[in-house]
Specification:
UDP-N-acetylmuramoyl-L-alanine:D-glutamate ligase; Protein-Tyrosine Phosphatase, Chain A; globular
C-alpha cells in the first residue's frame, strides 16, 4: 500500500466515527499476534501534558541509548506524526506498508475498526517490528475504553493530570473523568499520578489500591524554576546526591509540571533498573522541541503557537503570555472547538489580548469564527472574525508590523498545520540559536 492509499483507507475508516470500547481493537491486535504484549510500554493518559511528557521522556530515553518508540495524537502535520522512533517520524513509505498490513486484517473483521483503532494497533505492530526497547503510548481520550488500552502489564502507567474536558464522553465531574483515566492502571504495575486535584487523587488512589498497583507522586521540592523567557526555561533538579541544571526550549508555564512528571518517571525507571543518567537527561531536554506547545515559530516579530484547547490550557496560556510578554499585550489568533467551555476564555484573555482574530479550525467540531468573536466582544475584547486561518495570519502580521506587538496563536491543535503553512507563505522562516 502506498502512502496515498493508506491515507485514503484511513479517511474511509474515519467515516465509522469515534466509538469507545475495546472489542474491535482487541480483536485487531489478536489478528496481528498481540504485539502490545511483547513490548515494554509506558502508557500515558491525562487531560493535558501528554504530548510534552512524551516528547521529553522519548528524548531522554533515546539519548540514554534506548531504542524508543513513541505514539502520540493528534497528528499535527500529517499521519506520520503519530509514529516516532528515536524522536523521528517514520517515512511515508514505511507508513504505507504498515497501514497496508494492518488494514488487510482489519477488513476481515465483521465489526470493522475505527480510524484511531487502526492507528493504535499499527503503533504496537510498528514498534515490535522495529525492535523498540521501550514504547511510550499516549491515550487518545480517557483511558479505560481508549483504543491504546490493550496492554495487560505496562512498564509504567502515567496519568499526567485530570481536568474537565471531553465531558460529553467522559463525564461532567473530575471524579468521573478520573475514573476513566484510572482505567489504564494495571494489576501490580506502578502508576505515576502527576496531578494535584484532591478529588482525582482519591479516585486514582482507590483504583491503584484495588489493583495492587504502587502509586507514586512527584515531589515538587525537587524541581526549582530558575529562569524563563520566550526562548526557553531553566530548572534545577535535586538528584538526592546533588543537583543538575535542566534547560529546555519548552516555555509554557505548564512545563514545570511536565518536567516534574518526566523527571519523576526517570527516577522510577532508574529504580526499575533502566539505565538513565541525569547528564543524558539534561542533554536531551536542552535539545527537545515539541510542535504546538508555546512553540516559537518566528523571532521578528515573535510568533508563537500553543494548543490551549481547554479551560485549564487557556488559563496556563494566559499566565505564560504575562510572563513572556510583561511589557504589553499581544495579537492573538484563536480557534476552538464548539464542545469546549470557550465562554470561559474571555475572562482569561482580556488582560493579555490587544486584538483577537478568530478562526474556525478545519474540523467538523469547530466553533464558527463569528460566534467566538461575538463572545469575546461582549466581554469587552477587541475581536474580529476571519474567513480563514490564512487571512488571520495576514492580519495579525500587519497589526504586529504597525504596533510592534507580538503574535500568539492559541486554541485547537487542529489548526496548527493551517497556521504554520500560512505563516510560511507570509513570513519566511528564520534560523536562530535558541540559547542566544
Amino acid at each position: 500500500m502506498t502512502y496515498a492509499e493508506a491515507v485514503d483507507y484511513l479517511h474511509t475508516a474515519s467515516g465509522r466515527g469515534s466509538r469507545l470500547g475495546l472489542e474491535r481493537v482487541t480483536e485487531l491486535c489478536r489478528l496481528l499476534g498481540d504485539p502490545q504484549e511483547k513490548l515494554r510500554v509506558i502508557h500515558v493518559a491525562g487531560t493535558n501534558g501528554k504530548g510534552s511528557f512524551g516528547a521529553m521522556l522519548s528524548a531522554i530515553l533515546y539519548k540514554s541509548g534506548i531504542r524508543t518508540g513513541w505514539f502520540s495524537s493528534p497528528a499535527l502535520t500529517g499521519y506520520t506524526d503519530h509514529f516516532r522512533i528515536g524522536g523521528e517520524c517514520i517515512s511515508e513509505e514505511r507508513f504505507g506498508v504498515l497501514i497496508g498490513e494492518v488494514s488487510a486484517l482489519a477488513e476481515t473483521m465483521e465489526d470493522k475498526p475505527t480510524e484511531f483503532e487502526v492507528i493504535a494497533a499499527a503503533a504496537y505492530l510498528l514498534f515490535l517490528q522495529e525492535h523498540c526497547d521501550i514504547c511510550i503510548i499516549e491515550c487518545g481520550m480517557g483511558g479505560d475504553t481508549d483504543a491504546t488500552n490493550v496492554i495487560s502489564s505496562p512498564l509504567l502507567s502515567v496519568i499526567t493530570n485530570v481536568q474537565l474536558d471531553h465531558s460529553g464522553f467522559l463525564g461532567n465531574t473530575i471524579a468521573e473523568i478520573a475514573g476513566h483515566k484510572a482505567g489504564i492502571i494495571k494489576a501490580g504495575r506502578p502508576v505515576l499520578f502527576g496531578g494535584s486535584d484532591p478529588e482525582a487523587l482519591e479516585v486514582i488512589s482507590a483504583a491503584a489500591f484495588e489493583k495492587g498497583a504502587p502509586l507514586y507522586r512527584p515531589d515538587s521540592k525537587r524541581l526549582r524554576p530558575e529562569s524563563a523567557n520566550i526562548y526557553g526555561s531553566c530548572y534545577v533538579w535535586d538528584t538526592g546526591d546533588g543537583t543538575v541544571c535542566l534547560r529546555t526550549q519548552l516555555v509554557g508555564a505548564y512545563q514545570y509540571e511536565n518536567i516534574l512528571n518526566v523527571m519523576t518517571a526517570v527516577e522510577l525507571l532508574r529504580l526499575g533498573g533502566i539505565s538513565v543518567s541525569y547528564e543524558k537527561a539534561a542533554q536531551a531536554l536542552s535539545d527537545v522541541s515539541w510542535h504546538g506547545r508555546f512553540e516559537l515559530l518566528r523571532r521578528k516579530p515573535v510568533v508563537m503557537f500553543d494548543g490551549a484547547h481547554n479551560p485549564d490550557g487557556m488559563r496556563s496560556a494566559a499566565e505564560t503570555i504575562k510572563r513572556c510578554f510583561p511589557s504589553g499585550k499581544t495579537v492573538i489568533v484563536l480557534g476552538v472547538m464548539a464542545d469546549k467551555d470557550y465562554r470561559l476564555y474571555a475572562e482569561m484573555l482580556k488582560d493579555v489580548a490587544e486584538t483577537v482574530l478568530t478562526v474556525a479550525p478545519d474540523n467538523p467540531r469547530a466553533l464558527p469564527a463569528e460566534e467566538l468573536a461575538e463572545v469575546l466582544s461582549s466581554a469587552g475584547i477587541t475581536a474580529a472574525p476571519c474567513k480563514s486561518v490564512d487571512e488571520a495570519v495576514q492580519r495579525a502580521l500587519a497589526i504586529a508590523d504597525a504596533t510592534g506587538r507580538d503574535v500568539v496563536a492559541l486554541g485547537s491543535l487542529y489548526m496548527y498545520r493551517e497556521f504554520t503553512e500560512a505563516l510560511d507563505r507570509h513570513l519566511p522562516a528564520q534560523e536562530y540559536d535558541p540559547w542566544l
